[in-house]
Amino acid sequence: MEALMASAIGLLTAAGIYLVLRLRTFPVIVGLSLLTYAVNLFLFITGRLAVDMPPILRKGVESYTDPLPQALVLTAIVISFGMTAVAVMLALGAYLSAGDDDVCLPPDDSGAEGGA
Amino acid sequence: MQTAAVFLPIIAALPFLGALLPGLMIQAGRNTCAAFTASATILALTLLLLCVPSVMRGEVLTYHIEWLPSLGLNVNFMLDGLGLLFAGMILGIGLLIILYARFYLSREDPMGQFYTYLLLFQGAMVGIVLSDNILLLLVFWELTSLSSFLLIGYWKHLPEGRQGARMALTVTGMGGLAMIAGMLILGNIAGSYDLSVILTQKDAIQASPLYLPALILILLGCFTKSAQFPFHFWLPHAMAAPTPVSAYLHSATMVKAGLFLMARMWPVLAGTPEWFWIVATTGLITMVMAAKIALFKDDLKALLAFSTVSHLGLITMLLGLGTKAAAVVAVFHIINHATFKAALFMTAGIVDHEAHTRDIKRLGGLRHLMPITFTIATIAALSMAGIPPLNGFLSKEMMLEEVAHTQWFGPAWLMGAVATLGALFSVAYSFRYIAHVFLGPKRSDYPAEPHDPGFGMWAAPAFLTVLVVLIGVMPMTFAGDLVRVAAQAVTGAEPYVKIYHWHGLVPAFWMSVIAVAGGALLLAGHAPLTGMWNATPRPEAKRMFDAVTRAATRWATMLTDGVHDGSLMRNAAVFAVVVPVLGWMAWSAGGMAPPSRAPLPVALIPAVGWVLLAVATVLLVVYHRARFTALVLLGIAGLMVSLAFVYFSAPDLALTQISVEVVTIILLLLALNFLPRETPAESSAGRRLRDGVIALGGGAAVAGLSYAIMVRDFAFDSISAFHLANAYKGGGGTNVVNVILVDFRGFDTFGEIIVLGIAALVIFALTDTVLRGEGGRRLSRLDPDTNPEGQAGDRHPLMMVVATRVMMPIALMVGAYIFLRGHNEPGGGFIAGLIVAIAFVMQYMASGYAWAEARQRVTYHATIGLGVLIAAVTGGGAWLAGRPFLTSDYGYLHFPPIEEFEWATAIAFDIGVFLTVVGAVMLALQSLSSMARRAGGTVNIHPMDVDPARENDQAGGGV
Q1: How many other CB atoms sit within 10 Å of the CB of residue B875?
Q2: ipTM confidence score
Q3: Which residues of B fall within a CB distance of 8 Å from A7?
Q4: What are phi and psi of B251, to 5 degrees?
Q5: Rounded to whole angstroms, how far apart are CA atoms B791 and B916?
Q6: Nearest to A99 among B695, B713, B778 (CB)
Q7: What CATH number has the domain spanning A2-50+65-98?
Q8: What pLDDT, on a 0 to 100 scale, did the predictor assign at position B957?
Q9: Could you tell me if A70 and B653 are in contact, meaning their C-beta atoms sit under 8 angstroms apart?
Q10: B97-106, B396-405, B848-857: lowest mean pLDDT where?
Q11: How far are the Cα atoms of B653, B850, B942, B945 from residue B938, in angstroms, in the given order?
């Protein structure tokens, strides 16, 4: 199972990196979302994999999975939503202000004031 | 008695506090501004004088304040004879400079700024000489570099000023960096960063193999600061500063900081052959070379600048000799040089101010026009030349005496001869300063009619000249005690101080005679010598410096542009390559334990999920250009991630992930309304291959790392056991994840909801800005109704409207339920907030933004603010009970016949979280929808397009 999880994280990372390296803003945002999944999963698995051991205290149950990475990842998920939303708005603002959704400035423009 | 010691931090702080005054007081006029500036210095000086009696008794005042004891960095001050000498010079001459600058600066110069810079610099200098901790000393040392940069570049409109300031900062700053390294080594050897400890460790330091590197690094700092060969070139260029700055920085203070440090470190660093060869040789070379150059400078300030370099060389050489007698002379000459050189700089400033030129070739015959200035300048210059009975004579005579006894390279007389040559040049340029400026016939072509300035301007140099004479005539009365305590601090022993004029017909006497006679002769032959001087090629320091800095800048630009040229792709690619490589290097360094956990067996359902995730991800990469398809595939991947959380015992995460997923996809869909629907194929096959390789490399690295973590147990016991054990006992909840969020790590959560709120506000502000600018105009030209192909027939379909209306209360109920159970079961504020936000968003989707917004009574900004406020108040409430911020309390209520009900203050905190999440999500979506409205989509007044009720009404005559 560990191998499945590790390969899934690796696959999400690879796809995320590839899309982040594209030239338009939309794939970059999708790539960032994939990287977010990968990072959240990665943080989560630092508590090691455990099946049927949710960290909800029950009488008579002794073993629970590690709750700490879960708490960290929970806020990370919400924050990453905020980050994605800001990135989307930046991309949208850039597209509407500049008229194209290129990630890079045109070569002759790089020294001058950047787009919005 | 250590009572005076409490003044030390105040003395060091006063100039910094005073630096706030000039900017405020300049409004009240220039005199008031100068007076307030002076008041800070006067106060500091008074406090320093209160310390004098104890220091004169031979006590060392110390004052300790702990700052960062773990780093060995403490605010420790110390005042001994050496510190007293320098602090007195810095504050005393500083006071004179404040007076002088009041009259020197013209109306156009921003005086408040000048005095602020001056006091900052003064504070930094006082800090250096009072520091007992070498790390603290380094902080002040860097501050002098920075504040002198501001002072030298004070005339911002002059390119020479800016270049000179930059050069000074570069040279002294680099020296400062070297010195930091040297000081750290020194502190390591001594086992403490406190000077009072280091100064007792002479044997350990000099025996250490790191002695030489530490010595060289520290000397680099001293030599650059004190403008010693070959770093002397910055000082003449710094003369582009206003004359008060030159008089202050380059006579008494900044350039003396290097000397101060050499004197301070003298007890532990001096006395070795290395010290002698490096310091004495550098000093001697600097002294002779700079004196020779000074003779041929036509600019008054350049002449004085090189003469300063020369005299600094002299003092450096004396310190380098390493004998106690030489150290006494060095201390004495520091005093003398400060008096006559500050006076000379000020007279040069007066000449410049009144005659509007300081070019010696255009001056001459000023003695009748400016008698007062002439008198002051002549006395000071004669002292610089070493003419009896002035103070310069005394220290120069003693210097020659010391040198005559010193064996340097080659024959025994060599050092004496070279030093005499330096003294000879010194006499020549000093005489030139008098003869070519003040003597000679009166001229008719001065740029302005010169005359003596007002009292305010000549008072300061006159005072210094009086000191020159007094110390010269009665050295033991006026300087003897100060020299004694200062020299005692330098040498660490009771020194023999006996200063007198007539030593008999010793070698020094003849050397002096040769120097004076030779100097006079040299001046007589100045004109032909100048011709020869101008004909010989010389290395031009500024050109070399510029070439070096240009080359450095070019290399730096090449490197940064190569890695990071503003292109996101390049930056991300470099990052994605470098991090795995570094990780690999760390990995291959070894030290990994073998796997210690047995892997879980593969079950069918997770395997199916894995396949779905893998297929969706691969398809996403392949078909990412079709943006809607990409979103669908992204949704699948997100769902599979939520399922992974469920399967691996993280129900809270699964709930959060799935609701965030919904919100994110809606957000992206909304954004796609305005963005192109397709990504054009632009990158070449080679580029795609390269990116693919980078991506696979990064993915493999992360997969490998994850696997390596999962098959090993914790290296150390995790702190999770504590949370599991105390969640119920301490936090009153059985859902440990929720208890961690609202209780154990509540402060984190508090920060995170603030971040989330800020993100939403950023989105709002960004939208607003875009809509006001070009983006808004572009949007209003966009016609969404005709633009894309394949519009849905109904914008607000009946079925969807009805379904969402029915779902709304249910969704809100679910939200409330999830919220309330959160402390004990999976749920909580984050998830409930997302669910409620989705319930609202559904209404927006079904009936349109305008319709829903018109029915929205609460502003989302306020929701966010309220959420953060509630969380803060709950956290602060713990203070009332005398507990730390966010400590939660809980108890049980029992209302029959309902089951026992638990209350916890954490629930109020969770309400804050809930409100912030709802507000943030809704504000983000609302911002997007405001774009849609700007784009001019049809605004619906009715909740749905086809409304049977409305049609009936219309048939019956309207609503």
Answers
A1: 21
A2: 0.93
A3: 610, 614, 703
A4: -115, -50
A5: 35
A6: B778
A7: 1.10.287
A8: 46
A9: yes
A10: B848-857
A11: 39, 9, 11, 11
